[in-house]
Amino acid sequence: MTTTVNSPLTAEEAADKVIELEGLIATCTTNMVELTTQRTYLTLGSPAFANLAGVTLQQCRTILPPCEELFGMISLLTGQVSAARAILSALPKKGREAKLQDVTDLLNIIKLPPVAVPLEQRGLLTAAELAQTVTSDRLLAAMAEAFTPANQLVFKIKSAWASLNSDIIKLDDDIKGLRQDAADLGALSTQELAQAEQALAAAKTSVYSDPLSASANILAEVRPVLEACRVRINHVKALKSQVIGQLAEAEQALEQLKSAHAASLQAVEERKVKVTIDHEDQLTMPLADQVVSQLGSWLERLRTTIKEGKYQAAAVGLTNWTAQAVNRKSAAESAFQANDALLRERRDMRGLVEALRARAAADKRAEEAELMALFTTVSQMLYSRPTPMTRARELVKQYQDKVLE
């Protein structure tokens, strides 16, 4: 509906205008209430904005106060529309035109609060306060111009907080996870984690006070520190896994060494009972028992080193331990082989003598006196304890040469 301010509305036009303005007032009120009760809006702390800083503080101070004045504008508009409705509800027949003009003025010309004029800005004839009026259409347009940037600002801040808080929560979780990993690894105090926590605390403060200036880049100081800590912890994890594997292999190697040592001792004892040799002192002999026990004690100390979280030292120690264990196992196996070889040789010579006797029998020579005597002598020697190996070898050779001649 378009009218001039000075032209009085008809009663019908005025009633329509009242209904239109009341609808706009209701819409304005709803939108203002919804905006100003938003959690983000309340968190901003208008009018003091005490917890804000930087660009966010500057924009809030510039944009939100004019929006908050809309409540006053709505109140002025509501008052004049209500007054116009009251007049329309009781239009007299006499003086009707004058009353319709009053209604028209109330609906079209909104009286704003007077503006104080500072003395330094006054002329001689300038009043201390200047009355202001504006058309209702212009007032509504100005109110819309004040509301839109305020609404956009609040939701821009809300979006910034949501995005940055999501990043912060993830980093918080990462730090907690890494701290737990560090505790599990026995590294209860890590300089990198402390630095990351300090950087994140500073980022939280900045994000809360000035989300419009903050961005994902504000966390740039946190991520590299956290990544360095993650790399170190993953390295320690890998090292821990490595030394646990080395320890398991070392424990198995120790058991194998103990078995090899026990076998070498048994072979020596059996060899001493069953055979004698010349220059026995030149034969490879078993390890001393203390060598095996010392390796066991060393491995126990390495277990303690692992429990204390000293994985690098444990890795070096286990490498050295394994080299020693391999050498000692090789020595034990050599001792076993050297002594067991003599026992096997004795068994082999028994088998050879029996085979030679069968050959002699096949050649119809078994009853020869010399062969029978040699067989009896060598057999008795090979089945005696201990068998003198040097003499036994000589007799077996003689018997073999005699049978095969």
Short description:
It is built from twelve helices and four strands. The chain is mainly alpha-helical and 405 residues long. The longest helix is centred in the middle third of the chain and has 53 residues, at 222-274.
How would you portray this structure in words?
- The protein has 405 residues and is mainly alpha-helical.
- It has 3 domains: 149 residues; 75 residues; 167 residues, no CATH class.
- The chain has 12 helices and 4 strands.
- It has a two-stranded antiparallel sheet. It has a two-stranded parallel ribbon with strand order 3-4.
Give descriptors for this structure:
405 residues, mainly alpha, 3 domains, two-stranded antiparallel sheet, two-stranded parallel ribbon, 12 helices, 75% helix, rod-shaped
Give a topology summary.
Elements: H1 11-36, H2 39-44, H3 54-68, H4 70-89, H5 96-108, E1 109-116, E2 129-135, H6 136-184, H7 191-209, H8 222-274, E3 275-276, H9 289-307, H10 311-362, H11 369-382, E4 387-388, H12 389-404
Parallel strand pairs: 3-4
Antiparallel strand pairs: 1-2
Helix pairs in contact: 1-4, 1-5, 3-6, 4-5, 6-7, 6-8, 7-8, 8-9, 8-10, 9-10, 10-11, 10-12, 11-12
Averaged pLDDT: 88
Q: What value does the Rg take, in angstroms?
A: 53 Å
Give a quick account of the main beta sheet: strands, pairing sense, barrel closure.
2 strands, antiparallel
Helical proportion?
Answer: over 70%
Number of strands: 4
The SSE string, one letter per element, is HHHHHEEHHHEHHHEH
Strand content: under 5%
Structural category is mainly alpha
Distance between the termini: 145 Å
List the total number of helices.
12
Poorly predicted sequence stretches spanning 5 or more consecutive residues:
1-5
How many separate domains?
A: 3
Strand order of the largest sheet: 1-2
Based on Cα principal axes, name the global outline: rod-shaped
